[in-house]
Amino acid sequence: MALISVSLLAGDFLHLAGDVEFSCEYADLLHLDIMDGVFVPNISYGFPVTDAIASIATKPLDTHLMIVRPENYVERFAKSGADMLSFHLNATEKPAEVVSLIHECGMKAGIAINPDIPVERLFPYLADCEFVLIMSVFAGFGGQKFIEETYRRVESVKKEILRQGADCLIEVDGGVSGKNAGALKSAGADILVAGSAILGAESPIEAVLSMR
Ligand code: DX5
Ligand code: ZN
Asked: Model-level pTM?
């Protein structure tokens, strides 16, 4: 069993309420992608949108920060209703402090890494994080092709989590669909993020079911 987190980046921004309601009914989490145009070469959306989503969401908000100096915004995202907050390991000089700050603000903390960062760099933080986010595409854009190497990366992290006896979930994000969901779960993934495979599908309900 894995939780499904719908990336609203693939939603219809003129009618986002519909996508939020759909995701709350059929999925487990809402994935909010925050991009600053500095850490990644794209800009997504900010507080007016996250506040609005939070006002009608009935499932937890899984907020993924792709911004530099995430520490400056942890409190504000807590205020904006985030339940889970992840940031990229190389976006800050003090990852351990950011994790503590996220906890002080009452949220679950996650550390994300792009496909070019060795998974071993997550190992010192596994005991302190509720989850880690392994990118299966380079952060910045929805609709990219899944990188196959991800399976081995998930397996390595899973093995280390078990070795340490850590209580840490593995989230996978980017190019995830019904085609790779089963293999990702077998590799050890606990949370599957999908945007275009669900909200861009002819039948989003079927797409969620195929991932389950
Ligand atoms: C990419 C984002 C992803 C993205 C996933 O930078 O972090 O969450 O929206 O979109 P799909 O599922 O379309 O690859
Ligand atoms: Zn994301």
From this structure: 0.98
